[in-house]
Amino acid sequence: MPKNQVKKTKEKKDKKSIIAWIVSHKDFITIILGLCATLYPILNTAYIIMYQTKCEKFYGIPGKYFDSNIDNKLLYLLCIITLILISVAPAFMKKYYKERGNLTKGYLIEAVFLSVITGMGIGAVNVYNLIEIMKQTYKTNAFFGSINNWLDNHACFTITIVIVLGSFSILGITLIDNLRTIKRILLKKIVYILLTISLTLSVIVMLYGLIFKVSISIEDKTKYEFVTYNNDEYVVLSSYHEKLLLSPFQIDKKGQYIFKTNQYLFRKPYEGLYQYKDIECSPLIIRN
Q1: Do residues 161 and 239 share a domain?
Q2: Rounded distance, CA 120 to CA 167, Å?
Q3: For residues 281 and 219, what is the distance between their CA atoms, to the nearest angstrom?
Q4: How many domains, in total, are found in the chain?
Q5: Centroid of chain to Cα 107
Q6: One domain, residues 106 and 190
Q7: Is residue 175 located within the same domain as residue 76?
Q8: pTM above 0.85, yes or no
Q9: Residue 247 parent element (H or E)
Q10: Exposed, middle or buried, 186 (CB in 10 Å: 0-12/13-18/19+)?
Q11: How high is the pLDDT of residue 258?
Q12: CA quadruple 232, 233, 239, 244: dihedral, nearest 10
């Protein structure tokens, strides 16, 4: 039998085995999907309660006027999980073909290529996570402030390093068996050290970025919508029963926004001129 025909036959068997696995585990998959559907309203309700509590504490306005949902955060979490699963897929693919004695150079090159590409995806997400971490930590103390300033001043270098670390991490996981066969001890140690550093840093950035992104952080919010009614400008805090929850505000000499939430009011959303601004720093709140 020609080699090409043998290869095609093996590929068909591999596809059939994957389909067979899905069919054989359909009950388990159904249970998982059912649990997700059941847990969603519970998680969403818990999130809304926590969100309203934090808003009430921060703005000094009854929490019932604030509304939100967990959809965007769950979607982001789902995207991260999907990306991680895709990233480790080349390693499992390589192991799968190796166990069946079908690991050709073509499959190995394919696994390496996919590892680099998915690793770059991990790196790109970590760039976004790093930005989120910087937003949350730059005001913590002078040390974090100086680190954030350095990273900001060397943005291109930072982005490149983060993406390279992501690619190297996934590539190292895929080729871990090959790394063990390196005969030169010094070279092997260097590669392992680099892999450990890149993997550790990538995981830390991913983990903390995910925590900061998914967590509720009203105090650090700096992007608000503003609306002008008859030359009077207000900041939009939320919407409630098809009306906008507004607060008057003022800006001091240093450019600090001060929200007078003790004078909050409701207006119809179909009037006024709207603007979306980043006020850069968290506003001061006058509650009483």
Answers
A1: no
A2: 5
A3: 10
A4: 2
A5: 31
A6: yes
A7: yes
A8: no
A9: strand 243-251
A10: exposed
A11: 94
A12: 10
Domain-terminating residue out of 214, 245, 276: 214
pLDDT digits 0-9 by tens, 88-99? 888 888 887 787
- Tell me the pairing of strands 265-267 and 284-285: unpaired
Rounded Cα distance, 182 and 175, in Å: 11
Same domain membership, residue 209 and residue 107: yes
**In this predicted model, what pLDDT tens digit does every residue of 25-58 receive, in sequence order?**
677 778 777 877 788 888 888 888 999 999 999 9
Q: Is the distance from CB of 114 to CB of 90 less than 8 angstroms?
A: yes
The domain of 161 spans: 70-214
Q: Token pair for residue 24?
A: 């054989």
| 112 and 182 inside one domain | yes
Is residue 207 domain-shared with residue 77, that is, in the same domain? yes
Q: What is the number of other CB atoms lying within 10 angstroms of the CB of residue 184? A: 9
Question: Do the strands 257-259 and 265-267 form a parallel or antiparallel pair, or are they unpaired?
Answer: unpaired
Is 123 within the bounds of a domain? yes
Question: Which pair of structure tokens corresponds to residue 228?
Answer: 């002008």
For residue 139, what is the DSSP state? T
CB 175 within 8 A of CB 112: yes
| Token pair listed for 101 | 């004695």
Please identify which residue in the block is written with the tokens 């670390």: 165
Asked whether 78 and 66 are in contact (CB, 8 A), the reply is no
238 and 118 in one domain?
Answer: no
